[in-house]
Amino acid sequence: MCAKKSENLKRLSHEKWEEAWQKHWKKAQLEYELPILESEEYFFLSEQRTAEKEKERLERITAEFEMGFTNLSQLGPAVTIFGSARFKPGEPYYELSRATGRAFAKAGFTVLTGGGPGAMEAANRGAKEAGGPTYGLNIILPEEQKPNPYVNDSFEFKYFFVRKVMLVKYSCAFIVMPGGLGTLDELFEAATLIQCHKIGPFPLILVGGKFWKGLRDFVGFMAEQGVFSPEEIGFSRIVETPEEAIKMVLSSLPTDFRNSLKQL
């Protein structure tokens, strides 16, 4: 049954896509009704956006940036590991992420994640098991995402964009485990920043060739349609093992920086 379901998903037709949109997304996008009580979005959309209110919002955003800068600026050389919140202990991608966190901690890096469950928890867990520093940058969601128990400390963010700045700003490499919408958002933001020379260039590495084959194929299709130039293809390295990822990151670092890493 599972194999049949997987095969059907691989052949996702336009009709199946439309059916899923109608069932799961239409109401959220076209028929939504914001609850009035305790809904910041309701008041934001219905009230006049005065300069005073926008200033209050800006102050909240600034305070969150300051919190991140204060807590993360002294972490030392770090890598960020992105990935799905849905994997369970014992599942292949959970254990791959756990091994990746462990490998980077042993190589002397602080491991940063989004702080939640799944691949994030696994990476923090692997780093902690290796005796390395590891931190979670947790996002506050309507359905609460609790910090996983494998971090030295967890820092909570309300704004996704502030959190993403912190996950990118304090890392010298970005390791992307299999994941869904949030992971793809983080992957493409990092790729865009590198492409536009806003950061780095830093290594951007996808772990798990079988999972990322669909992305590779889709990029090839987009290139055929003219929206990817030849030099934009291959914007990230696809590897199978944590050891390959470690090797690439270490080779990207200046010699004196690489020699300063305290391997465990």
TrEMBL record:
Signal peptide, first to last residue: none
Any one GO CC term of the record: cytosol
Gene3D superfamilies according to UniProt: 3.40.50.450
Enzymatic reactions: AMP + H2O = D-ribose 5-phosphate + adenine
InterPro entries cross-referenced by the UniProt entry: LOG (IPR005269), LOG_fam (IPR031100), LOG_family_nucleotidases (IPR052341)
Domain of life: Bacteria
Identification of the protein by name: Cytokinin riboside 5'-monophosphate phosphoribohydrolase
Species per Swiss-Prot/TrEMBL record: Flavobacterium aquariorum
Taxonomic lineage: Bacteria, Pseudomonadati, Bacteroidota, Flavobacteriia, Flavobacteriales
